[in-house]
Every structure is written in C-alpha cells, then in structure tokens.
Give the backbone structure.
Amino acid sequence: MPWLILFVAGLFEITWAIGLKYTEGFTRLWPTVGTVAAMALSVALLGLAMRTLPVGTAYAVWTGIGAVGTVILGIILFAEPATAARLVCLGLIMAGILGLKLTSPV
C-alpha cells in the first residue's frame, strides 16, 4: 500500500508542476487553486508513504515520477522537444526509480 500511495503522490506532483504553467505566474485564480491543492495532496501523500518507506527512496521515487511525468506532458501539451537524448535521459530516470523500488527493504 505505501508504494501505491507514493505513486498517487507522484501523480499529484505532475499535476501541480503542469498546473504551474497554467497559473501564469499565479495570476489566474482557478488554476492557482488547483495547483496549490495538488501541491498539498502530493506532499501529504508523500508523508503518509514515508511512514513505511525509507525517506531517501520515497523522496527519490516521488521526484522521479514527477520529473518523468512532467517532461512527457510537456512534450504532449506544450510541444517541447522529444529528442533522442531527452528520451534516453527519461529512460535513465525510470531505470533509477525501478532500481530503488526493487532494492527497497519494504
């Protein structure tokens, strides 16, 4: 269960990172409200997952999920470049996330 909670926390991290773009510097009310809510949920769920998971592993996986998801959505939503080098780097991050999961004592 802590891994599922951590995964959902990572999804909320993606949500708030993408939401920052839509707030336009926190000048738009509803995107700002949604972004701040996603931030709070993300951190709260991370905290719950850390009750069981090692702090270093949980934090690294959480930020990795957020980074990979945000880059992928940046490519899809904002036409950011999907170069071979960027995709290889995403693969390396995903390999690191998987490695931490597989070697975690929990």
Observations:
- The mean pLDDT is 96.
- The two ends are 10 Å apart (CA to CA).
- Residues 55-78 form the longest helix (24 residues).
- The CA atoms of residues 10 and 65 lie 5 Å apart.
